[in-house]
Amino acid sequence: MVPPKPLLFPTTKHHLLKFDGLLIMLLLLFPAFVDADCNTDDKDSLLSFATNFPTLNWSAMVDCCSWDGISCDKHDRVVRLSIPKRRLRGTLPSSLQNLTNLSFLNLSNNFLSGLLPDGFFSSFNNLHTIDLSDNYVHGNLSNILPATIKEINFSSNSFFGTIPPSICINSPALVILDLSLNYFTGNIPQGFGTCSNLQVLSLGFNNLTGKIPTDINGVRSLQHLSLPGNSLTNEIGEKITSLTNLRSLVLFGNMFSGSIPLNIGKLSLLEKLELHINRLNGTLPLSLMNCTKLKILNLRVNSLGGRLSDFDFSNFTQLAIVDMGENQFGGVLPKSLFLCRSLTAIRLSTNKLEGEILPDILELPSLSFLSLSNNTFKNIIQALDILSSHEKLTTLILSKNFFNETLPAAGISGFQDLKILALGGCKLFGHIPIWLMSLTNVQVVDLSVNNINGIIPGWLQTLPNLFCLDLSNNSLSGSFPVELTRLPALASQHVLDHVNINYLELPVFVAPENASYLQYNQLVGFPPSLYLASNNLRGGIPVEIGNMQLIHVLDLSQNYFSGTIPGSISNLTNLEMLDLSRNLLSGEIPSSLKGLHFLSSFNVAFNNLLGAIPTGGQFDTFLNQSYEGNPGLCGPPMQRSCSKRSDPPPPVSEHKKGPDIIMILGPFLGFCFGFGIILTCQAFLILSERRIFPKWIHRYVIWT
Ligand SMILES: *[C@@H]1O[C@H](CO)[C@@H](O)[C@H](O)[C@H]1NC(C)=O
Ligand SMILES: *[C@@H]1O[C@H](CO)[C@@H](O)[C@H](O)[C@H]1NC(C)=O
Ligand SMILES: *[C@@H]1O[C@H](CO)[C@@H](O)[C@H](O)[C@H]1NC(C)=O
Ligand SMILES: *[C@@H]1O[C@H](CO)[C@@H](O)[C@H](O)[C@H]1NC(C)=O
Ligand SMILES: *[C@@H]1O[C@H](CO)[C@@H](O)[C@H](O)[C@H]1NC(C)=O
Ligand SMILES: *[C@@H]1O[C@H](CO)[C@@H](O)[C@H](O)[C@H]1NC(C)=O
Ligand SMILES: *[C@@H]1O[C@H](CO)[C@@H](O)[C@H](O)[C@H]1NC(C)=O
Ligand SMILES: *[C@@H]1O[C@H](CO)[C@@H](O)[C@H](O)[C@H]1NC(C)=O
Ligand SMILES: *[C@@H]1O[C@H](CO)[C@@H](O)[C@H](O)[C@H]1NC(C)=O
Ligand SMILES: *[C@@H]1O[C@H](CO)[C@@H](O)[C@H](O)[C@H]1NC(C)=O
Ligand SMILES: *[C@@H]1O[C@H](CO)[C@@H](O)[C@H](O)[C@H]1NC(C)=O
Ligand SMILES: *[C@@H]1O[C@H](CO)[C@@H](O)[C@H](O)[C@H]1NC(C)=O
User: Fold this and answer.
1) Of all atoms in ligand 12, which is nearest to the CA of residue 549?
2) What domains sit in the chain, N to C, each tagged with a CATH number?
3) How far apart are CA 79 and CA 71, in angstroms?
4) Of 572, 367, 286, which Cα lies nearest the Cα of 555?
5) Mean of pLDDT values over 535-550
6) Ligand that lies nearest to the alpha carbon of residue 186, given by its number in the listed order
7) What residue spans of 364-485 are helical by DSSP H?
8) 571 CA: nearest ligand 12 atom
9) Of 92, 171, 280, 382, which is least packed with CB atoms within 10 Å of its CB?
10) pTM for this model (two decimals)
11) DSSP structural state of residue 480
12) What is the pLDDT of residues 2-14, one digit of tens each?
């Protein structure tokens, strides 16, 4: 694009070093010499622009057309300014407006802020692209856009006000308009119908209300319509089905009601249909089966119903992801679904589906994610028998089905790639089955809220990747097996580092007690944890528990554990939650536990503990409820003061664990975790070089 320029001066590094004094002098005297080819007005404008932004490494010594992020046309006028991710901070200087021949401007991913004044872009004769995405610029949209504009990306800024109806009248060439992630309010105006070139309209995550404008059918060129995360209401409406060039229709997270447009099948090029989290009702329109190019179909969290097997999925040869969880679909699993050979993920959880899982599921060679939880499927033996021979399955969530059945004790083998197995809340009988031992890739096992009895087998320690085990709410007896403390992914950082946690095709949802769903898009957000609460476990807590260095959540509550709390728990420096409540524990609370700087939830209520409650560190943040039901405990926060002749606390193991900054931030970090104020805390968490978890999980979670 830039023709080679004759060199008036040799400007290699070597010469610069040798003659730098002379050269700089010459440059100062005759700046026009060296950059004879760079338009001086443009250069002045750029240099003036750069005075605001020290991170720009533009050097006045060379031709401005070769500066980082600049391109010129054949008349050596600056036509492109592309300086994303340059840490530019401050307001947009008006000197930018003097680059009158600019056609392409990319300032995305900086820290630009302040008001974009009216008419800011009016001096440009030929501007066709503005990308200001990911900054903090504000303003309202009337009158700031030039007539030549084709592509506008203002997403993720602080623009406000209403979206003016005149955009397409003023800027008829518009092809891409992305105003998502701002603070726009009011209705989406009529007027987009005049945008005869518009292909992408993205207004998601604003505060838009009202319905989809009725002249939307005029935007025949539209390929991507994306309005998620607003408060849009009324029916989606049939007009949208005139947009026959649509490739994606993304309307999730609104309050749309009524049915899915009956003629949606007219959108025969549609690849992505995301209508989840709305108030849609009725059945799946039969015409949908004409959208044969669909790759992603997400209808989760609506009130759609009807017998799922009444719908013919067989034309969806490219369908990869289908999510229809949290609806009212009934009937059995539709056979035609198993003809969609491209499927990698299916979620049908929380519906009214029934029947059995049949071998036709094995016809889906790429299926990796299957969640059918919270329906009324029957015959777990057959289900596991079939599914275990599926070689690609990594996530299997069958919780809340198969009520009162018995877990097969043997005869299951395979599941060679399985990473998540969730069978919680099924009220299953039986023992912890030996075939779990063959799940060598498993990372998460949830068998909570069942009727499982017998002991916790020591061979669980042979599962090399298991970092989350939930056996809570069962009838398990016997002791805490010492072998469990050697679970490799909980005991060795090296092992945990090698556990691949980036494989979910769909997010998983975990519903903790008294809280809304926590969503995990990747398991990187899920804390290493062991839940054994509400069983009949007895005996001491083994001192070897100190091996489980990486554990974040340890819940042993509501059992019959006795003896003292081992001081080795203070070795578990990652602990965020420790619940030992409602056991038969005695002795003192080891004061070394105050070295647990991330502990934000601690409960030893209803035991037989005695002595002084430790003070300092996170212990200054715990309340009465953590200690009640232990008549022998004294000191704050309990009312009971300790007699002055109480025994001195046991010596604190005083080896320093990590840099001092963590010592200082400890209570603050505990606060971050406990109250989930993630954003403000993230910077501090990065300092601590530790895996960051959005929120720790309380007990009785169900995976869906
Ligand atoms: C921009 O243009 C205006 C008017 O043409 C002029 O007064 C001003 O000095 C210019 N600014 C720069 C930085 O070139
Ligand atoms: C200027 O910075 C950009 C990226 O920020 C880099 O690619 C370029 O090499 C730098 N130029 C000089 C001369 O340092
Ligand atoms: C650059 O802009 C000026 C007006 O600012 C205009 O007269 C000129 O034609 C433009 N040059 C090119 C090459 O577009
Ligand atoms: C602007 O730069 C960002 C970051 O490099 C890039 O992702 C984006 O596509 C660019 N915008 C345009 C319109 O090319
Ligand atoms: C946007 O700016 C124009 C002109 O400055 C003003 O008339 C209008 O009221 C503003 N709109 C909003 C919603 O602030
Ligand atoms: C969205 O708009 C409503 C009124 O229309 C207002 O009450 C609410 O605070 C706004 N929310 C945000 C996040 O701006
Ligand atoms: C769907 O919801 C609307 C109200 O939003 C109601 O009028 C209609 O009867 C419902 N249809 C069905 C099939 O439930
Ligand atoms: C699917 O499209 C064909 C023509 O392309 C049409 O004949 C048929 O009626 C459509 N099916 C449905 C269910 O809309
Ligand atoms: C399947 O697609 C073909 C076109 O590819 C269409 O003719 C047929 O009607 C579709 N079948 C169903 C059941 O919609
Ligand atoms: C299970 O489904 C019922 C309705 O069928 C719903 O109320 C409940 O919240 C669902 N449970 C979970 C854990 O999703
Ligand atoms: C499971 O067993 C319990 C208690 O025996 C009974 O109340 C419940 O109805 C049974 N549930 C099913 C689905 O069979
Ligand atoms: C505490 O952790 C260290 C590793 O940092 C380990 O070697 C030691 O065995 C652990 N102590 C106990 C009591 O588990």
Assistant:
1) 2
2) 55-179 (3.80.10.10), 378-612+624-633+693-704 (3.80.10.10)
3) 6
4) 572
5) 96
6) 6
7) 380-387
8) 1
9) 382
10) 0.85
11) -
12) 333 333 333 333 3
- pLDDT at 481 (0 to 100): 96
Count of CB atoms situated within 10 Å of the CB of 448? 27
Ligand 4 within 6 A of CB of 103? no
DSSP E strand stretches across 525-677 = 529-531, 538-540, 553-555, 560-564, 577-579, 584-587, 601-603, 608-612, 632-634
How many other C-beta atoms lie within 10 A of the C-beta of residue 274? 20
Distance (Å, rounded) from C-alpha 498 to C-alpha 521?
19
What span, in angstroms and rounded, lies between the C-alpha atoms of 22 and 16? Answer: 9
Strand partners, 579: 555, 603
pLDDT given for residue 166 in this prediction: 85
- Concatenated DSSP letters of 78-119: EEEEE-TTS--EEEPPGGGGG-TT--EEE--SSEEEEE--TT
pLDDT digits (tens, 9 = 90+) for 17-42: 333 444 344 444 444 444 457 888 99
Question: 497 or 678: which carries more pLDDT confidence?
Answer: 497
Distant-in-sequence, close-in-space partners of 16: CB < 8 Å, separation ≥ 6: 23
Distance CA(344)–CA(474), nearest Å, equals 33
Q: What is the separation of C-alpha 479 from the centre of its chain, rounded to a whole number of angstroms? A: 38
Residue 462 Cα to ligand 12 middle (Å): 20
**Is the separation of the CB atoms in 280 and 252 below 8 Å?**
no
| Beta-sheet strand order (sheet of 279-282) | 257-258, 279-282, 303-307, 328-331, 352-355, 376-377
Q: What is the pLDDT of residues 394-431, one digit of tens each?
A: 999 999 999 999 999 988 988 989 999 999 999 999 99
pLDDT tens track for 105-133 = 999 999 999 999 888 888 898 999 999 99
For 417, 551, 621, 674, the CA distances from 594, given in Å and listed in that order, are 40, 17, 11, 17
- C-alpha to C-alpha distance for 259 and 281, rounded to whole angstroms: 5
Average pLDDT over residues 352-381: 96
Contacts of 659 (CB under 8 A, 6+ apart): none
140 Cβ closer than 6 Å to some ligand 5 atom: yes
527 close to 503: Cβ distance less than 8 angstroms: no
Q: Does ligand 7 have an atom closer than 6 angstroms to the CB of 328?
A: no
Strand partners for 468: 444, 529
Atom index in ligand 3 nearest the CA of residue 77 equals 13
Residues 594-624: tens digit of each pLDDT: 999 999 999 999 999 999 999 999 999 999 9
272 strand-pairing partners: 248, 296
